[in-house]
């Protein structure tokens, strides 16, 4: 077992999909919130539990939205997720095929599925579309259910095709023996890897996890007590007892590495000249707010003598954007009801604001 440079742990080689993901090179393609299961630890937000499509944070209405988002990110691959993408099989296959046609065969696509819907016919459609890697997440912690038995049988179908097959499950404290059983099952079929995710709280699974006795490791973290330790135990056991590769994907990796690297790739393609790209990949700049933007623009250009090319009127957000240093100078010089701030935003489609500093 070895510690990666990404705050995670591995046995043998990381799956190709993971290698690209940690570098921020994977577009996250959410093809539907529909799913045949209702896992108690599911972290999906309420608005993603519907039949919706997103490319990263961008709502998708047509295939061109996906292509545009991939270009902005300079993505070299995509991770197809849900819900269960096979709940909308034709749509998912169409998107995979479109990405391959646009960016070429080297554009690496991996997909997550429960296994409930992976019939031979469905898998053949995904394979023909160009899928490179498939990751199974069966109802492992409900082994007596009929659905679990169907999933286990369906997983066997994946080995009829020339792609990488593996599993991906959360490290649920108290469920170590079930995860080890799954590892041995995959290893016996000739799978390549098993990914273990550190279990985390979210807005939607919080009550379920608390009711089952799980607790966060601290007030500042969403990670669950005992999950990381179980993941490490599985890796140590797996290294000695199976031939699989393992990757323990930690809560810190997702926030401090994967997201940051993706933001950096996007920021350089969406930043306007007056925006500074921070170390974290956010966009930092100054803004001025006033009830009449046209009046404010005239004031800044004609009276404060700010060059017009330094200013951008953002009517949607009700503000005028500008370089940070310009906002600092204007805040000291202009009195009245004009409000100046330094803001930081994600370079994503939804432009989430992560910081706002009032001036002066």
From TrEMBL:
Radical SAM core domain boundaries: 20-239
InterPro entries found in the cross-reference section: Aldolase_TIM, DUF8061, MJ0021-like, rSAM, rSAM_sf
PROSITE patterns tied to this protein: RADICAL_SAM
Matches recorded under CDD domains: Radical_SAM
Molecular function per GO: catalytic activity; iron-sulfur cluster binding; metal ion binding
Pfam families named in the record: DUF8061, Radical_SAM
Keyword field contains Iron: yes
Keywords attached to this entry: Iron, Iron-sulfur, Metal-binding, S-adenosyl-L-methionine
Domain of life: Archaea
RNA-binding listed as a keyword: no
Protein name: Radical SAM core domain-containing protein
Species this chain originates from: Thermococcus onnurineus (strain NA1)
